[in-house]
Design goal:
Elements lengths: L14 H9 L2 H11 L8 H8 L3 H8 L5 H19 L5 H7 L5 H12 L3 H13 L5
Helix pairs in contact: 5-8
Organism: Luteimonas deserti
InterPro entries: AraC_XylS_family_regulators, Homeodomain-like_sf, HTH_AraC
GO molecular function, one term: sequence-specific DNA binding
Length: about 140
């Protein structure tokens, strides 16, 4: 089964994701659904339970190796935000955060800083500087 981008940058299936998929093959389908619906602010346990006909305890068990459903969704959204901050430099941070399903600017700013050690604006500025740096001769 090919799971491009879950969540290793080289397309390899990382340890916790592999463990979750091996524990229950439905996890791969749920992970794809999460990535396809990152922009949906309603994405969460209730939506996934209904879409995949699983109980809340079953869903929680499936996602235990990944740190939980909400944590996994937040992580995927933060990684997507980081990519888009780099790839869409003219797009406002406020637009990006709502486009990726975050419910408030404060929530996004705090989560981003906790995960990456800097604000989204600082990260964007740093990524621009790296792109503009002259290549070594």
């Amino acid at each position: 089964m090919e799971l491009i981008g879950y969540p290793g940058s080289d397309g390899a299936v990382a340890g916790p994701v592999r463990e979750a998929i091996e524990g229950d093959p439905r996890v791969a389908r749920i992970l794809r659904c999460i990535d396809d619906r990152l922009e949906d602010p309603g994405l969460g346990c209730t939506l996934l339970q209904a879409a995949f006909h699983v109980s809340r305890p079953t869903l929680y068990r499936m996602f235990q190796p990944l740190g939980g459903v909400s944590r996994y969704i937040r992580e995927r959204r933060l990684l997507a935000a980081r990519r888009r901050l780099r790839d869409e430099p003219d797009r406002s941070i406020t637009w990006l955060l709502y486009d990726l399903g975050f419910e408030s600017e404060r929530q996004f700013q705090r989560a981003f800083h906790a995960r990456f050690g800097m604000s989204p604006a600082q990260w964007r500025l740093q990524s621009r500087r790296r792109e503009q740096a002259p290549l070594p001769v």
